[in-house]
Task: structure prediction
Amino acid sequence: MRQSVTLVVNGLERTVDVDTTWSLAHVLRNSLGLTGTKIACDVGACGSCTVIVDGRAVNSCLMLAVQAEGQSITTIEGLAVDGRLHPLQQAFIDSHALQCGYCTPGMLMAAKAFLDKNRHPTEEEIKEAIGGHICRCGSYHNIVEAILIAAKEMATA
Amino acid sequence: MPEGRVEFTVSAPIDKNWELFQNAETWAMCIPGCKGVTKVSETEWDGLFEVRVLHTSRTVQGRLRAVEIKAPSHIRYDGKGELREAFHRYGLTLRADMSLEAVSGGETRVTFVGDIAAKGLGGAIINKIVSSKMDEMVHGFEQNVRRILEKEG
Amino acid sequence: MQYHRPDSLGGALTLLRDLGDSGVAIAGGTFFVPHRRELFTDVEAVVDLQGLGLDYVTLDGHALRIGATTSLTSLIESGALDGGPFKVISETASQITPLELRNRATVGGDLCMSAESDLPTTLLALNAELVIASDSGSRTLPLEQFYLGYLHTALQAGELVTEVRVPLPASSAGAAFYKFKRRAIDLPVLNAAAQVVLDSDGRCPSARIILGCAAPTPIRASSAEQALTGSKCDGEAVIRSSEAAQDIEYQEDLRASSEVRRTWGRVAVREVLRKAIERAKGGQ
Result:
């Protein structure tokens, strides 16, 4: 069934016509053109579709778009502010924490939501926070390092 | 799935029960979800079943074979079936021993002993679901059999 | 598929009554959404419970009360469970991974929709009860009577679990949870929870030991309980009890063989008893 839904994404209100069975991931990509969020497994097992909803990292493939009405959504496109990269993004570049880049938006959003609540994480805590994310290229070590570096950067900022 | 036993008493004489139970075209239709049974030969039948699970249903196709018949009280069956998913087919095997026993007062005790099992490791989930639906299906089967035999009796 | 988001419990219950089998209630939706095209093909309408205010964790003198749509993260962050007799609930929820799942999955959903899960095991050990509402009233049901079979609960069409109540354990009780699974995104292979009560002699007059994922529904490890009750609850008693849990028929499926589950059954019972007894001795 088609329904109109208003989503607040990256601070902007967007109203779109959706099918009630469409996932938030699908609507972000196809109705709103925000293709930074990736869909790989579509069942909440890979983390590539992770966005932040009301401050918490969620798998957008596990939410119907209509469920997200009234909530505040941040996608990877909303991470950089006024063209300035977020410390996490800079750290990922500097630490070579991506190869193909497919897991990266999901990793960054999970990391951001995590660091926003945990300014002084241990390596173990970071690994736990990204436990739901698969990196097929095997960049885990650099990803964890990048998050540690970004945490220090954010703590001193 | 572990072996199961279904037992109930029908208020109808044994020969009336035998009439129903010696032809799978009639008794298999009593199984809840049965959509149709076709006789293939004197001892073989094809059946189509629809099973409802959670908020969906699945179709099971099967062939039943009577491998031993001792009128008017006993039939041994075996069978093979298939449950189709979008990208997978579960093979099912069936074993059942049916017995009828005349008891006092013109009644008959009907007993089925056997099991249905989905093959392979993937089949475990099917077995668990079948197991959870057994009580409901047995109850429905019993009611349908009584409706046929006891009304006429 | 219609989508409804009622703003009152009464409205939701009327909707669910009218929809009957063709409707399904969702909170986080973490089971419904990925399976919507496979297991929910007959659903004509979805009733979203997020607007009903069933998102709370309160502790009064007698019991812990958890609203059914409380997310696992909210449960852990509520503070009501820290350091007290209900710490085991928070510990259980924290082991449901990944983080993204905890942020959306709810207590009610985990109890009603999930076949292989962790909260039921712990809440059964704590002898929880459910508040179940419908258009015609509400009832309470011990969680022990809720699981009838694999993916088959005692909920009737039109009914909704609105709250989980956990009685305050005795001060001489201790509880613990343990699970084995392979990776962050896997369902548990086997889990166990125990609540042990100690008397002034250090003996155990009663224990509840629950095994999850060993059978199609969570079960009480009665032989293990019997082996422990009356004993001095020392290391030997714990080993005896964990050996007694071997008499269960452990299920075999894609996730693990019955032998693997049998091995973990012994370990899990041993671990939860050790910790529960330690906590009982320490007065939690």
